[in-house]
Structures are given as C-alpha cells and as structure tokens.
Amino acid sequence: MNDQPTEPADELGKWEIQVRKGGLGLAVLAILWPDRLYGLEILRRLDSQAGMSIPEGTIYPLLSRMKAEGLVDSEWVEAEAGHPRKYYRLTDPGRLRVREMARSWRTFAAGLERLLAPLEIGETK
Amino acid sequence: MSNDAGKAHLETYLAQVQRHLNGLPDAEAREVIAELYSHVLDKVDGVLTPQRVEAAIAELGTPKEVARLNVTERVVAHLETHRSPLSVFWGVTRLAGLSLYGFFVFLVSFTCYGVALSLIVTAAVKPFLPDHAGLWWSDDPQFGHTMALGVEFPAPHGHELLGWWIMPIGVVGGVVIGWLAWRFGIVSVRHMRSVARRGRG
Distance between CA atoms of B58 and B44, rounded to whole angstroms? Predict the structure, then answer.
C-alpha cells in the first residue's frame, strides 16, 4: 500500500528513460553505419555523439540479439591493445533496417515538432 | 603484483558470471565471457589494478545481473524466429535456473505440456486400446482419492470418467492446454527479459 504521489521529476525521468530505450536500437545501428566498432567504442560514441549513457552490461546482449536477427555481424580481431576485440558491422539487411527505422523516426519526430511549435512561441512571449 | 591481483579479481568475477550462464550452450557462454574480458581490458587501458578492475566491473553489473540479461536476451532473440512449442519450452528451461519466477514458469510449462500431451496421446490410443486408455477416478482405501490419465497397463481399478468422450475432449483439451502453455511461455520469457533490463536500467 503505497499511496504517496510520484514526484513530477521522477515521472519525467522515467519518461526520458523510456524515450531513450525506444531509440537505443536505432542509435546503435546508426553508430555502426560508417564503421565496424567494438563494444566499448559503441558505448563511448553513443555517449559523446548522442548523449546516450547506457548501463555497460546492456550493450552486449543487445548486440547479440541484433546478430541473431541478422542485422549485424561480428568478428574477433587481434587489436593493437594486445588483446582481441570483437568488432561489429552492419549487414546488408541491417543497413536496410536502419534506413527504414530512420525514415520512421524522422516522420514521427517531424510530427511531434509540429505539435511542439506553439509551445516555443508561448515561451518567447 | 598489483596487475596480478587485478587479474585475479577479474577472473573471479568472470567465473561467477559463467556460473550463472548455465542456461546457455558452452560455446555461447565462452563468447560472452571472452567479450566481457576484452571489455574490461579496454576499460582499464591494460592497467589491471584491483581498483580499476573493480570500477570497470561495477559498471557492467553484478555477475547475476549480467548473466541474466545475456541469457534472457538470447532466449528472446531465438524465440523471435523459432516459435514452435518445443522451442518455447526449451527457452523456458534455459531460464529456469536464473530466478524463482523462472523456475515457477518452468514448472507450470512442464505440467501443462505434460497434461496436454497425455490428453492427446490418450485420445489417439483410445480406439486401439479402449480398456487401457482413459481417465480414471478411484477411491483407494490406502491412497485416498486418485486420478489417472493416460494409457495404463493394467487398467487402473476405479471408475472411468469419460469413456469414448476422451477422444474429442482429449484432442480439444490437449490443444487448448498446449496452446495456453505455449502463450504463457512466450509472455513469461518476455517478462523476464523486461525484468532483467530494468535491473540494469
């Protein structure tokens, strides 16, 4: 029995987490568009390029699922660092999927932007 | 010396992860461990002091969290492409050791698939062995009330409940119970993945 109302900041935080989770699959595939990358590199680029800081333990299961779905491929490469690294690259179906996801995301974001436009005008008044 | 201590700390952590990965085939488990090992080496830039290793593995999560997430994601990924009742039951079996809920799902699935299979087999065998296939209710002075379903040699003492009705009821009941067990397995596996993700969310 917990009748305490949730703080608005908590609700906002939860909403932000859900939005980020929703976009995570697209972000990982998009990060792999130009290069093959290894896990930690993907995490660092997600953080630096998209401001998406995700728990490190979650990236490998996600990549493994994408591999099972045929969206990415992987190979172990003996790295300069002195230990092997597992690099991931997009497959052809992965490239097709990320294009479709990007198109869908842009349509969704553009629609939302139109809805949000009056808020911006209201803020400047 | 410090590097040795850090390496030992990392190996202990990975051994604990591996112990919780027992729901995965050996090759997949080895792959997970190798990738985590490589990740930590990258994270500490090759300097394996116990403090740096501890900080790196803290970011990954506890051995149980890491293992649970890896196993559930792999099982769900497999179920996205392989949806047969056998695949779903196999997935449920892989998750049985990860949590109490996983074990509960396994028990329910095992029981329901068992009942469904018994009903269908009994219905199929009834025309060939009418006295030995069926559903019996007996009032045994030693064991109390008992119910028996299936093909029994010798036929149990007691009252056969359905007679020839076991054929349509067995087929329909078996299919319905099997379908419910199948759906329950899929929904439960997805639920376990959500819980595992929330654990690291």
Answer: 12
